[in-house]
Structure formats: C-alpha cells, structure tokens
Amino acid sequence: MKAVHYLNQFFAGMGGEEQAETPPTRLDGAVGPGRGLAAALEGVEIAATLACGDDYFAEHEDEALAALLEMLAEIEPDVLVAGPAFGSGRYGYACARFAAAAAERGIPAAAAMHADNPGVAEAGAAYVVPTAVNVAGMRDALPRLGALASALASGREVGSAEDEGYLVRGFRRNYVAEKTGAERAVELLLAKLGGETRTEVGGDMDRVEPPPAVADLSAALVALVTEAGCVPQGNPDHLQSVRAQGWFRYDLGDADTLASGRYESVHGGFDVTLANEDPNRLVPLDTVRRLERDGRLGRVHESLYTTTGNGTPVVVATRFGQEIAGELRDAGVQAVLLSGT
Amino acid sequence: MLAKEIERAGIPAVYVTSLPTVATMIGANRIVRGPAITHPFGLDEDERRRIVERALAMLEADVEPNTVWEVE
User: A159 and A228: one domain?
Assistant: First the structure.
C-alpha cells in the first residue's frame, strides 16, 4: 500500500521562513520526519512527499490545493498523511485543509498537530492525531500517526476517537451501546457529584454577538491593538516571539508613524523583514494619524496594545483579550483596529 | 481571540488579517482580509489607506457574526 506525506518547506528541508513562499513541490519517497513515519507504518510505503511553503499555501490556497490534489491523484495513494504540524498555525491549517480535501475525494487522510492548533477545526472528515505543542513531541507523535494511517490505508473500520487516539471530529456514528441511556446518564451524574464532569455530547463553540456600529467615528476614541509582536526597538520588556506570556501597553506619545528603527516586530511565526522596514505595515499609525488630522477619526488612543499571536493557547489568548478589553473600556475607547498576521 | 473578547466587552473591533478563515473559526465578527501575513496593512501608504478605510467602514456597519470583507 502507498502513502503520500505532506510537509511544509521547513520539514521538507527546503528552508525556513525565507522559503515560506515555495509553491507545491513533489519529492520522491520519505523526507525528514517521513523517515520516522515510514518506520511506524505497517505494510505501507511512503511513495512521495509533497511539500509547500506555509505562506504560499495561506496566500494562494486555491492554487496550492489544486496543485497538491493533482499530484495526489497521479500517485493514487491509499492514505494521505500530513504533518505533524505541532503548534504552528499556518502549517497546521495547510495540513488540515489538504487532508480535508483529500478525504472529500475519497482518499483517507490523517493529519497531526496540537489540539489547540487552529487547523484542527478545518480538518473536515480527515482524522487529526493530537501532538505536543512543539517539535519535541515528534518521537511520541509518529508511532500514533503511523498506526492510524496504517489502519486507514488497510481499509479497516476505524473506532472511536477515544479508542484510536484522534481528536473528535464532530461526527456522530450510531452504535449499539452496552448500557441504556438512563444508566449512562446516571453514571454521568454520579461522576459529576464526585467532581468529574463528563459528557457524551460536546458543546458548541463560544460565540459573541457583534456590538452595534460606531455611531460617529469622527468623534470616537479609537485604539490600536496588534497580535503581530510590535514592540519598541530592542524589545525592552522581552515580549516572546512565540507562546507569549503576556501583552504590553506602549505610549504612542505624539508619534505620527511607527518609524523603522524605533519599532520592530519580534513575531516568530513569519518573516519580519518587510514589517521592520516599515512597522506601519503591521500597525497603521501613519494612516490613522492622517485620518485623525483630517477629522475622519475623533482621536487615536494614547496607547498601543501588543502581544504575539503565535502558538498562544486559546485560554491564554482569551485572558489577554479580557484584560486588554477591560483597560480599553475603562479608558472610554469606542472602536478598535486590531491587526494579526 | 482578542477581537472576540474586545467585542464581548461591547467595543466594536475590526480584525485585519490575511487569514480570515482562522479568524472566522475562532469567532471574530468584523474581519477585513489583509494582503499578506507579512504585511496585513499593505506595503505602501496608498494601499494602507484603502485597507484602513475599509476597516473603518466595517466599524461603522452593523454586521452579522463572522463577517469577512475584502478590500476593493
């Protein structure tokens, strides 16, 4: 049986962020982590490795997917394996979208990434094996990914997420339970009384109603917030480039631009060369100052709020958001311009 | 997540990002698609002005949850 393995440019050995624009490329056999994966596959050989730059995939998704699917169709594998992408958002997203598209076309697919990777929700009918947040989890991930991929290639019926070690996909499959609903409900109730809350039905994603429009921007206090890791040059407060531990507030004073050499981005998830040439490309202070002078905006809030949105767990990012929102509300801010990468 | 929590506090927030799919998934409501991961607000001032104007227009609009606007 044949497998195809998908990797980003980094894991395929083509280069780091400077190669993130690499279009889809076909390589023979197993490459990089594919060698470890090959050892974990049973009766399945990696026929080819398909690689694509993370930025290329994100910015040209339709073209990238079309090219990758065409290569996949030529090889006719029994299974597609993608990643592991660990906590990398762009890579995880690419793995998930490609795996989902393959699964839609009847090719069984398994990706691997951290459970908090935004790619997880994009995997559709493909399977996602959870991994550690960074590459240190490679050795642990490959045997589990290999076992699931081998099962998929063999056509064996795959059991529940819990039994087979993949993340819940949101599908409900009928099966005959050993106990009746009443018995299971009582067991859940007893477990809850004992301090352990379990459910057979996962909850829906938390949603927020959009607040109504700003009535009059020309009289409004507008704040700039960013997840792009913009900080004063030299990063005086040591904002992390990945998995930020906090956020910072910087006084903009009367600056009318985020000048190169005075501000920089420390974001570790993309190539910051263009951003550091002109930090307004991440936080558009020059433009909003002009609009403030023109009367299009009331006033620009005195502080810039910044953090690094890169591998931040959902609970942590939520806390940052609540803390920043509290300050903005107390300051009377009426509208926010937020940038992410 | 920042966009969502700021809006939860009742302040309209527009999120400019080149990955609107991810933004939609996590529950941001007002999303403007920026041109690239490395420069969501464009390369030059003209482009930036168009993106910022689009974002401001979204703050001035009542929107449905998870709305994505392109820059014209």
Answer: no
